[in-house]
Specification:
Elements (H helix, E strand, L loop, with lengths): L7 H25 L3 H4 L4 E7 L4 E4 L13 H8 L10 E4 L12 E9 L3 E10 L28 E5 L2 E2 L1 H9 L4 H29 L1 H24 L4 E9 L9 E10 L2 E5 L15 H16 L7 H4 L3 E3 L17 H19 L12 E8 L6 E8 L27 H7 L2 E8 L15 E7 L2 E9 L19 E6 L2 E5 L2 E7 L4 E5 L18
Parallel strand pairs: 10-11
Antiparallel strand pairs: 1-2, 1-5, 3-4, 3-6, 4-5, 6-7, 8-9, 9-10, 12-13, 12-16, 14-15, 15-20, 16-19, 17-18, 17-20
Length: 534
């Protein structure tokens, strides 16, 4: 088929094919990865971009990564001009301020795709559980600059004309406390890019360069038209909401995130100018994290069927002053940016629930994230376990919230007990849904989870990043808030509640760590709940 750019059927086929390429890259990465965080929890993303760097198709399993690929290609081309790229090249970057992921743990691998000439790029992001820095896991809410977070890489050539640059691989390994995992995960990311290159090559061979490129351009325009039409169905007006981080990471001062959403005809404006200045801690959000949050919330709250591409993205107007907590400037630390992204998403969801009542939802119980590190006495090897424990989602107008589910920007899995105990020196003594943790309402909030871990390792340290301990998930339309989360340490028969954010808390063999995640808010007055729904 030589020219099908005007053929609607072929265009639709090409569009779905490209989406499947992104999904196939994810499947390859998860199956080939070495670390539990990717192979078990699927903390990764992938996408296809056109030759100019516009996102054509992004896998939606990791929404926090959605914005990370948008600045990638301009930053890459600035260092490596298009005319220098050849088949077999691949590049590595993780700096949030120069085209990388939204924090240093997110290593991005990108490869050019050729069909006689450069026609596209394929890229994937994997969260590496340790990339150096002052604390195990490279992610601390109390870091004061990005230099404390770990190895910082601008776009660098990882593979040159098919030959892997071992010096770059060694650089990553030497800066990590778990070098074998880094090697295995980087190889998996290269394999994922190769799978994407092969599949796109098949597409261009079947339909021809002009047909595919023309179809992709039209798909972006179609995405913009779809988004504008969806905005026109919202209630016109100005809607405001505020939610809170429990603390800033150093002091006990809460951090308010206030948003305003302006809806007018086919236009949508997100005004974040009332969010405060960037923090002296790791809870700042770089621009790519802000964009990911905005795109996710609008897609979820306006029309979940909107295509995840640059056509939809270019419809949004976002106001966020540079140097603010949601649009930080270097050298601000951003290791724990996801907590802020989650609460920002909650505020935007609350505002858009007023603009689109049919999709209104109560507040959700955001995950509790932990990093456990130490020595495994079974092997003598050092380990770093990165895990997030899900809370309950908020109730909707017509449905109860979901129990123990990741919401908004994470969308990953809880690490299975069997995999956790095989990989790390702990025993899970208790794993259950928290009774009555979902907020009461006509529709009940989802329940959080309790997971108790007994420490068997040596020299174990704990880092915690969490929200919704002081400010529980709010109810909506008369519903009650969900139960707050908490983390409790049991030692020698004594229970000690821990705070929301800290790093490197020493644990002893025999300690039991109890993580109890927050529940989701309820929707509607509890008295309206029918007997059959009890």
């Amino acid at each position: 088929m030589n020219d099908s750019s005007g053929d609607a059927v072929a265009r639709e086929i090409i569009g779905h094919f490209v989406e499947s390429v992104a999904d196939e890259m994810i499947a390859t990465l998860v199956r080939a990865a070495h670390s539990p965080n990717i192979k078990e929890r699927a903390d990764c993303s992938a996408g296809v971009l056109d030759a100019s760097g516009q996102a054509v198709a992004l896998a939606t399993n990791g929404p926090v990564h959605l914005g990370s690929l948008l600045a990638l290609i301009p930053a890459l081309i600035e260092r490596f001009p298009v005319e220098t790229l050849v088949p077999g090249d691949a590049f590595l970057v993780n700096d949030p301020y120069t085209g990388g992921g939204s924090h240093l743990n997110d290593l991005t691998v990108v490869a050019p795709v050729f069909a006689g000439e450069l026609v596209a790029f394929v890229a994937n992001i994997g969260h590496h559980s340790d990339v150096g820095g002052r604390v195990p896991g490279s992610e601390a809410g109390d870091s004061t600059s990005i230099y404390q977070d770990g190895l910082r890489l601008p776009p660098m050539k990882l593979r040159e004309a098919g030959a892997v640059r071992e010096d770059i691989v060694e650089l990553v390994q030497l800066n990590s406390r778990t070098p074998a995992e880094r090697l295995g995960d980087l190889r998996a990311q290269l394999a994922a890019c190769d799978a994407g290159r092969r599949r796109l090559g098949e597409l261009f061979q079947r339909y021809g360069r002009d047909a595919v490129v023309g179809s992709l351009e039209e798909l972006l325009d179609h995405g913009e038209r779809r988004a504008r039409a969806a905005f026109a169905r919202l209630r016109p007006g100005t809607y405001e909401a505020t939610d809170f981080l429990d603390e800033d990471g150093i002091s006990d001062q809460p951090v308010p995130l206030s948003v305003r959403v302006d809806v007018a005809d086919r236009d949508l404006h997100l005004d974040l100018s009332r969010c405060g200045r960037q923090l002296a801690t790791g809870k700042n959000v770089p621009l790519v994290g802000l964009l990911a949050t905005a795109y996710y919330v609008v897609k979820a709250m306006v029309d979940p069927s909107l295509p995840t591409n640059a056509g939809f993205f270019r419809t949004l107007r976002i106001t966020a002053p540079s140097g603010s907590v949601v649009n930080a400037r270097p050298p601000a630390a951003v290791g724990s940016r996801n907590l802020t992204c989650q609460i920002l998403a909650e505020a935007l969801v609350a505002a858009l629930s007023l603009a689109n009542p049919d999709r209104a939802i109560a507040g959700s119980g955001i995950y509790h994230g932990i990093i456990l590190s130490g020595v495994d006495p079974r092997t003598g090897a050092y380990f770093v376990d990165y895990d997030n424990f899900a809370g309950g989602s908020g109730a909707g107008r017509d449905a109860d919230g979901l129990d123990s589910v990741h919401v908004h920007l994470t969308n990953t899995s809880n690490l299975p007990v069997e995999a956790f105990e095989i990989e790390y020196p702990f025993v899970v003594e208790r794993y259950e849904l928290r009774p009555d943790s979902g907020g009461a309402g006509r529709r009940r909030g989802g329940r959080g989870v309790r997971r108790d871990l007994r420490v068997l390792g040596k020299d174990v340290k704990l880092a915690l990043r969490s929200v919704r301990q002081r400010f529980p998930a709010p109810g909506r339309a008369g519903g009650a808030p969900g139960a707050p989360g908490e983390v409790v340490l049991y030692r020698d028969g004594t229970a000690k509640p821990l705070g929301s954010t800290f790093s490197e808390l020493p644990l002893e063999q025999g300690d039991v760590l109890s993580i109890r995640t927050p529940g989701g808010g309820g929707f509607g007055p509890p008295g309206d709940r029918g007997d059959g729904d009890a």
